[in-house]
Amino acid sequence: MSLLRLRSWNLSVKFALTITAVVAGVAFTIGAAIVAQDWHRFRVELEERALLLAQSVAVTAPVDILRTDYWGLYKSLKRMSKRASSRVVDTRVLTAMILDTKGNILAHLQPAAQPLGHRFVPANELERKLFEDAQAARTSTVLSGGGGEDGFLEGVVPVLSDEKVLGVVRVRLSTYGLFVKTQRSAYVVLGLTFAMVVFGSLLGAFVSRRMTKPLTAMTEGMEAVSRGELFNIAPVPVTDDDELGRLASTFNKMAVAMAEKSMLEEQMAVSEKLIALGRITAGVAHEVNNPLAGLLNCIDTLKKHPDDPELINRYLPLLDKGLHRIGDIVQGLLVELRVEEATETSDPSCLEELKGLVEAEINGRAITFIWENNLGEDVRINAKRVQQIVHNLLKNAAQVLPDGGTMSFRSFQEGDSMTLVVDDDGPGIPLEHRSQLFDPFFTTKATGTGLGLWIVYRLVQSMRGVIKVESEVGQGTCFQVTLPSGDLENRS
Questions:
Q1: How far is it, in rounded angstroms, from Cα 39 to Cα 80?
Q2: Which pLDDT band holds residue 186 (cuts at 50, 70, 90)?
Q3: Residues 328 and 357 both lie in one domain
Q4: What is the CATH number of the domain that holds 320?
Q5: How far is Cα of residue 197 from the mean position of the Cα atoms in its chain?
Q6: Of 340, 371, 397, at which residue does a domain stop?
Q7: Residue 99's domain spans which residues?
Q8: pTM of the model
Q9: Does residue 129 have a pLDDT over 90?
Q10: How distant, in Å, are the alpha carbons of 78, 96, 445, 455 from that of 70?
């Protein structure tokens, strides 16, 4: 399982698994220590039993060895074996023997397999090593032969008479009982460990749920914020006065503040729309009424003198000019409404269509036009909105250069935003006009409607962009528009 996949898990799952793992680790460690301690204790007890049994034989063996009473030695071994099997629980004597100092058999529990008077012959390398260690022993000791079900412990006690070694007693006990007792202990510990793991899992689930519940609520609240649903943020319940409680309390205050801010912004937006609508209405009324009054006068005069060719020749051009003026105003408003609702996206190559249009509007005038479209093909833009912004700015630049000059267009991308720059070396914008630059129907040109820059400003705002103007009288003007790159059709 990759680390990246683990990172994508919910925090509640991570908390629960962590607590479960800690509890399981602690339980396993404690259980392993208990089993190891039990094994050691049971082994020590079995070693003591092996030595006691061997010593019980070694106490009486010197007299029988000195008398060469081999039958008495054999009976000592049998009594010891019988007593061990009947009185000591979980003690099973595998074999027992008495050897002289040369390794000859003086007595053996299995005399048929190990004949009396013959030298003891080890069956394998382990038996040979145990034989050598036993013959070399001068004090009581315990020898080990493997472990588990087939393992054994051997008590070795020298037979002494007047501090002279006569031989050695070897009593071998099975460790099967030790193995069984340790296995039982392990099963008990395993059961307790499993119970602790289950308990730890339930505890981890409870604790993680309690700890992450405020975080989950805050995450859902932040997702609602990212979707713009500032009024759908449910308050996070505050149950404790710890760090999470204080965080939840702060989040609730932030949610209330954001909801209030959103409400104020909506109210301000409605107010701005009403103000803008009032200004547009007043502008339309003013811009249409002026030519309309003249047109009505012309029509009234022509009605009174329908056969006067001089009046017809004088007033027909005025009627044509006035109607075109009204048509331009209405067309400008319709263009703004249609383009602001456009959602079609395209790559930056759609801007190349504007180059020919602008060159046609220059129409052979002494204007140097520089075009630099540096946006990559992976950038997606709202085709009609961005085209209208660039076209209006370039058209405006061409109109302020009646006697020629230089105008340019540049576009480039910086991080998550794209920048459009249109500049010219024309007469510049006087300081007193800059505050009204983006007002509808404000214009300093005799034939302008005053809607071009207003449309640009509205389109930039609809895409959450920023427009900056730098101008100096006699030096020219530069318009810089910064828009977020990506799916701009969703930012309306």
A1: 25
A2: confident
A3: no
A4: 1.10.287
A5: 27
A6: 340
A7: 3-182
A8: 0.42
A9: yes
A10: 13, 14, 140, 126
